[in-house]
Specification:
Layout: E1 7-15, H1 19-30, E2 35-39, H2 45-49, H3 52-66, H4 68-73, H5 85-109, E3 113-116, E4 118-123, E5 126-131, E6 134-145, E7 149-152, E8 164-165, E9 179-183, H6 187-198, E10 202-208, H7 217-229, E11 233-246, E12 249-256, E13 259-265, E14 267-270, E15 273-276, E16 309-311, H8 322-336, E17 350-352, E18 358-362, H9 365-370, E19 375-381, H10 386-391, E20 397-403, E21 408-415, H11 419-431, H12 436-440, H13 451-458
Parallel strand pairs: 1-2, 1-6, 2-3, 6-16, 8-14, 9-10, 9-14, 10-11
Antiparallel strand pairs: 4-5, 5-6, 7-15, 11-12, 12-13, 17-18, 18-21, 19-20, 20-21
Length: 471
């Protein structure tokens, strides 16, 4: 300790106010634990302010834009004039601000102490917080690291840029791309590609060093068909080797399928990789175990190799998703409070707010076959669903995979309207080790997209009403 240094004592300190951090803080307050939350920027983190929420504002706007022709078919006014990006940006700001204020109000209502500043460990039981010229020391009993991750450009791409954009930048773009190249194959790449296309941009997808999209094979096949139908060009197994910004455009050199190519566009979106935000925390000073990539190693209770310090969310190994951070944040606090929580991401759903949306949980057909499972599969096309016909959302299907030996459901996959909302049902069924009968027994609202799940389950034994018999 520096001579003259004054330290303050705290029971639980959480570094990072994103979804995982503020959820952990509120759960701690609910359990009667005094809690201090430290955030250097805005509460809600990148997810609320730059990522999850802004991106979904764009995908929602794109969905509405795509419904224009159907609105005219229904006799409803479809509106006049062109798409106004400035209004969408204003709406995005309005939504994020309202949600951020809501988080701030919840922290205040739960008596969560919120401190603004940049935090780092100075010892195993001390955190220093810098805010301008002020520097404070906090001695803690327990701490939770919830600092998230940041996107990183691949090597070879220019660092100073205006038309080469990462995920936290593209939704602040003040001009609509004339031609957008999307470089990546993850969920955010697909959301960017389909939403910007629906809003008027020409889009080309370069699948970064990937032979195809990372979904269940049937879903991937249908996705490729729909992208072709939309005239979104997909180039597979691509690797950008050079990129240069010129007057009003980006020029790239790349290989695709082993062939050298060149392309010019107004903008380039790069999914890139993600790096945990731990470099300024000082973790190596006292030996907190990390992977080669910098992710913090934790046990089942989110505890690090230093027993008094926990870590959650994107700084830990596994899927970099807000839903994981929220689940881990609650579990870490419950463990600190003396409980025995469990975090199991086996059935963490894959969700894509693309046009149309995608949701998957459990095993794919290929994975199940590789495990030697005796399979039953059934795929119900939404074109046979009454509500899909009403809404004009007929693309896609629901697919159910089960083990024929015991009729236990092994995986559920969907591409099409309603997929995101139905994903919670998919996860519940898999978590409870549901049998085919558990899907077929309940009554399903009619008409609704939910009936697609019922028909897919009934199709496992050839009893789906709105599916033609197999030849």
């Amino acid at each position: 300790m520096v001579v003259g240094e004054i330290s303050q004592e705290r029971d639980l300190v959480i570094i990072g106010g994103g979804p995982g951090g503020y959820s952990a803080a509120i759960r701690a307050a609910q359990l009667g634990l005094p809690v201090t939350l430290i955030e250097q920027a805005d509460l809600g983190g990148v997810c609320l302010n730059k990522g999850c929420i802004p991106s979904k504002v764009f995908t929602y706007a794109a969905k509405k834009q795509a419904e224009t022709s159907h609105m005219q078919e229904l006799g409803l006014p479809a509106g006049e004039g062109t798409f106004d990006l400035s209004k969408l940006l204003a709406y995005k700001s309005k939504v994020t601000e309202q949600l951020r204020k809501g988080v701030e109000a919840l922290c205040k209502a739960n008596k969560v102490e919120v401190i603004k500043g940049k935090a780092g460990f100075t010892a195993e039981d001390r955190i220093g917080v810098e805010n301008g010229h002020q520097f404070d020391i906090y001695v803690f009993k327990q701490a939770i690291i919830a600092t998230g991750s940041s996107p990183v450009l691949p090597e070879g791409l220019p660092k100073k840029r205006g038309r080469i954009l990462l995920s936290h930048e593209i939704f602040d773009l003040e001009e609509m791309p004339e031609h957008l190249i999307v470089y990546g194959h993850d969920y955010i790449s697909l959301e960017v590609a389909t939403s910007f296309h629906a809003l008027g941009a020409k889009v080309t997808i370069l699948l970064e060093q990937a032979a195809d999209f990372p979904f269940e094979q049937s879903v991937t096949k249908e996705l490729n068909r729909l992208l072709k139908k939309k005239k979104i060009k997909v180039m597979k197994d691509a690797l950008i080797q050079s990129a240069e910004e010129a007057e009003g455009e980006v020029r790239i050199g790349f290989t695709a399928g082993g062939k050298e190519e060149q392309m010019a566009a107004s903008h380039l979106f790069v999914a890139g990789s993600r790096r945990p935000n731990v470099q300024y925390l000082g973790l190596k000073r006292f030996g907190i175990e990390q992977t080669e990539e910098g992710f913090v190693r934790v046990n089942g209770n989110m505890q690090t190799s230093v027993p008094s310090i926990y870590a959650i969310g994107d700084v830990t190994e596994g899927p970099l998703l807000a839903v994981k951070a929220i689940k881990q944040g609650k579990a870490a606090v419950e463990a600190i409070a003396g409980g025995k929580p469990e975090v199991d991401v086996t059935f963490l759903p894959t969700i894509v707010h693309s046009l149309p949306p995608i949701a998957s949980a459990g095993l794919t057909e290929q994975q199940a076959r590789e495990m030697g499972m005796d399979l039953r599969t059934s795929q119900f096309a939404l074109g046979g669903n009454g509500y899909a016909m009403i809404t004009g959302k007929k693309d896609g299907f629901v697919k159910v995979i089960s083990d024929a030996s015991n009729e236990i459901v092994a995986g559920i996959h969907m591409i099409g309207e309603g997929a995101v909302e139905l994903s919670s049902t998919f996860v519940q069924l898999l978590e409870m080790a549901a049998k085919e009968e558990d899907i077929k027994f309940p009554a399903y609202a009619h008409p609704s997209f939910n009936e697609g799940l019922l028909e897919a389950a009934e199709g496992l034994i050839g009893q789906a009403i709105h599916m033609a018999p197999k030849k």
